[in-house]
Write a structure and sequence with these properties.
Largest sheet: 3 strands, antiparallel
Low-confidence stretches: none
Structural class: alpha+beta
Mean pLDDT: 91
Order of helices and strands: EEEEEHHHH
Number of domains: 2
Strand order of the largest sheet: 3-2-5
Strand content: 15-25%
Shape: globular
Number of helices: 4
Radius of gyration: 17 Å
Helix content: 40-55%
Length: 138
């Protein structure tokens, strides 16, 4: 079954490492016939290096690289492991949310790991906000 992609004007997506952008002023639809073998990230799921400005966002970015860059996945996995250890040490309260992310990566479910790590980013944001007003130790 084909994977249907619908891009709004100006929207982009990543398909197996290639960035595809709709330069038309209308919605564009295309299908990936071998969708099961392809990594796809829509624009709202893509994080740039500049956006990865916190430890959990950096972790998301590394998982994103593991998802779209299979050739260098082993390199990214080392970075992932280091970041997980640093985050757990700095913010033990995030360990519970980290476990599902680690499990997904361990099983090779990188897209699912990306979705799981969104919860981690939200929790990190709350911790950082609380720490900024002195309510909570990270």
């Amino acid at each position: 079954m084909a994977l249907q992609i619908d891009l709004k004007p100006g929207e982009k997506c990543i398909v197996s490492g290639a960035v595809i952008r709709n330069y038309k002023n209308v919605r564009v639809q295309f299908a990936i016939e071998n969708g099961a073998d392809v990594c796809v990230l829509r624009e709202n799921s893509i994080m740039t290096p500049e956006e990865a400005d916190t430890p959990c966002k950096n972790l998301y970015f590394v998982i994103q690289l593991m998802y779209i860059d299979a050739e260098r996945r082993h390199v990214h996995l080392g970075t992932f492991t280091s970041l997980v250890n640093e985050i757990k040490k700095a913010a033990p309260s995030l360990s519970g949310l980290m476990s599902p992310v680690e499990e997904c990566v361990k099983c090779g479910s990188y897209y699912k790991a990306l979705r799981q790590s969104r919860e981690l980013i939200d929790a990190e944001k709350e911790l950082l906000e609380e720490a900024a007003i002195g309510k909570h130790d990270i």
